Amino acid sequence: HIIMKMQAVLTWLTGFTTIIYVILVVPSIDWDVLLAIPNGTVPAMIGGMTMVMTGMGLGWVNIAADWSRYQAREAKGGAIVFWNTVGGSLGPVVLITFGLMLAGSSADLSSAIGDDPVGALASLLPTWFLIPFLLTAILSLLSGAINGIYSSGLTLLTLGIHIPRPVASLIDGVILTLGTIYVVFFSPTFIGPFQSFLVTLGVPLASWAGIMMADIALRKKSYDEFALFNSSGRYGSFNWISLGLMAVSCAIGWGLVVNGYSDAAWNDWQGYLLGLIGGRDGVWAAGNIGVIVAMALSFVGYYGFCAGRVRGQEAGQAAAPDREAGADQGIGA
After folding, report:
1. By percentage, how much of the chain surpasses pLDDT 70?
2. Ramachandran bin of 278, using left for φ above 0, alpha for ψ from -120 to 50, beta for the remaining angles
3. Tens digit of pLDDT for each residue in 33-76?
4. Cα separation, 206 vs 212, whole angstroms
5. 28 vs 9, higher pLDDT
6. 40-64: string of b/e by CB count within 10 Å (b at 16+)?
7. CB-CB contact of 284 with 254 (8 Å)
8. DSSP count for the chain of H helices, then E strands
């Protein structure tokens, strides 16, 4: 509850200052220049969509269970999905669109944003608003890290590391904070490591999401909560088919994404399958379709290979007394 209250306060503070920022820099948008920009290619559009999808949706999909535990038990599963989708995407869609219009209005500004987004965007502001803008940038990073720290701390404990949960959260929080500060304030450019990080992490996240969506789609009953925590229960300790699908999907997905930035050379090993669709210099290289391919392969593979397994798990399982509550538990699990 403390986490949710802190999120609410940060949301109001950063939302208010962001609206002021938008009002102040609207005059910097050059509509004539924007309308003169030619249409992009289909691969470029898919590449942009992949970046947005990874940063907005896939970047948060692994904390769905953490988020759903704060919802009222009587809340409908469909309402939780709808309002979280709308609430989570409305703000970013507006801000991304506004940012694209700013960057498209000036080639110099666009280049500067790629190198130093905070400094470039601050250059458009009057002096009196620089401190509130900097505080907004810092608080936004803090807000985004709160749920991530909570979830990743729990994940660290599931690896078998025997430390108190606050310590696990502290370790992950320090790593998250240092990495974010480096990329935003100290990296030679922002866009290079940022995009490389998104597509690298996006492939396994997409694969996991595909498996999870297929599992939820196949199930007609709620999960057996007791069996989830019992290695000898109906679900077992591992699903080797899922692990195999994820390994194959990641191997194919990473082969179809590419790092195009010299300051993120640690990711140059990717793109080893791009020769099949035109190579690293081809039009599809920038599409980073490996993220989408990984999700599709995992979903289709799990749906096909595990349908019988799911039916067997549900055979003889007592129906949930409240099917709507069961649906909500399924979302959280």
Report:
1. 85
2. left
3. 998 888 888 888 888 888 888 877 787 777 666 666 677 778 88
4. 10
5. 28
6. eeebeebbbebbebbbebbbbebbb
7. no
8. 16, 0
Neighbours of 22 (CB within 10 A): 13
Is the pLDDT confidence value at 4 over 70? no
Q: Are 86 and 75 in contact (CB under 8 A)?
A: no
Do the beta carbons of residue 305 and residue 245 sit within 8 Å? yes
CA distances from 129 to 18, 100, 172, 193, 258 (A): 11, 22, 32, 29, 38
How far apart, in whole angstroms, are the C-alpha atoms of residue 91 and residue 250? 31
For residue 280 the two structure tokens come to 């690293």
Which tokens go with 108?
Answer: 């110099």
Note whether 10 and 139 are within 8 A (CB).
yes
Q: How far is CA 252 from CA 155, 245, 269, 293, in A?
A: 25, 11, 13, 8
**Stretch (H or E) spanning 181:** helix 165-181
140-152: average pLDDT:
68
Mean pLDDT to the nearest integer, 109-119:
79
Residue 269 Cα distances to 197, 225, 321, angstroms: 13, 41, 51
What residues have CB less than 8 Å from 254, skipping those under 6 apart?
A: 200, 203, 270, 272, 290
Query: How open is the CA angle 310-314-315, to the nearest 5 degrees?
Result: 115
Judge if pTM exceeds 0.70: yes
Question: In the chain, what is the greatest distance between 2 CA atoms, to the nearest angstrom?
Answer: 68
Instruction: Give whichever of 87-101, 188-202, 252-266 has the largest mean pLDDT.
Output: 87-101
Give the torsion sign (CA, 25, 28, 29, 31): positive
Nearest to 327 by CA among 216, 237, 165: 216
141 close to 179: Cβ distance less than 8 angstroms = no
Q: How far are the Cα atoms of 20, 255, 327 from residue 311, in angstroms, in the given order?
A: 54, 34, 17
